[in-house]
Amino acid sequence: DYKLATCPESDSKAVNEFNYVKERESEIGWAGGCYLWDYLRRSGACGYFLPLSGGADSAAVALIVHHMCDNIFNIVNGEQNEEAKFCLAELRRVLKDPDFTPQSVKDLTSRFLHTCYMKSDVSSEETRERAKKLADEIGSSHHEIDIQKLWRGFIDPVTKVLKKTPKFEHEGGSSIEDLSLQNLQARTRMILSYFAAQVLPTKCDLPGYLLVAGSGNLGESLRGYLTKYDCS
Question: Fewest CB atoms within 10 A around its CB: which of 44, 98, 111, 165?
């Protein structure tokens, strides 16, 4: 039952006729947005934190969260029925702001979605620019963190044990070394993401904490082609 709000006065139809769309892509966005909103309002969190890599997977997740904000904005600023009133009340409750009324979709996205580009020395300027451009387009609160020192902090103790420094293949290392270093970057981003999601609200004066949105690819998961505990 994908609806932005459930209140006693609303009917029990699985899909609200006013909001129903036939296009498959639009329906996926609508259903995903409804799920994220329902999860958010029940969790006690105040938004989502998403590591934005500049790639397709994390961009798709960012757009689904943006779609969530678009859905909320259209309901709240549409026909003033019971569903709209209940949705606005829930919105104000989640944000802990009894007077809040969204002025635009970007206004909502900036409050609910915090994106972060976590760069290292092997990150490209192209992916950085793509991440920033997408964040600007949808209106997310965007941040950048350099993970290089933290990543090296994991490598240095192991280097002392191995008596050698693991290298990427293009640096002359083996395929095993290359894969381990890539996985280490992903897991470094994961640890940092959960930390940032808890402390970032204190900087932005937000109530509560942020939920970390994953960008795992289902096809990769089914085939076992993934980094466990990845947040890249």
Answer: 98
What is the rounded CA–CA span in Å between residue 178 and residue 112? 36
CA 45 from centroid of its chain's CA atoms: 13
Give the dihedral sign, CA 69/72/75/78: negative
Give the residue among 87, 92, 31 at the shortest CA–CA distance from 64: 31
The count of residues in the chain is 232
pLDDT digit string (tens) for 131-174?
A: 999 999 999 999 999 999 999 999 999 999 989 999 999 999 99
- What residues contact 88, with CB distance under 8 A and at least 6 apart? 76, 101
Residue 55 one-letter amino acid: G
Task: Strand 210-212: give its sheet, edge to edge.
Answer: 141-146, 113-119, 47-51, 210-212
Which amino acid, residue 70?
Answer: D
- The one-character DSSP state at 100 is -
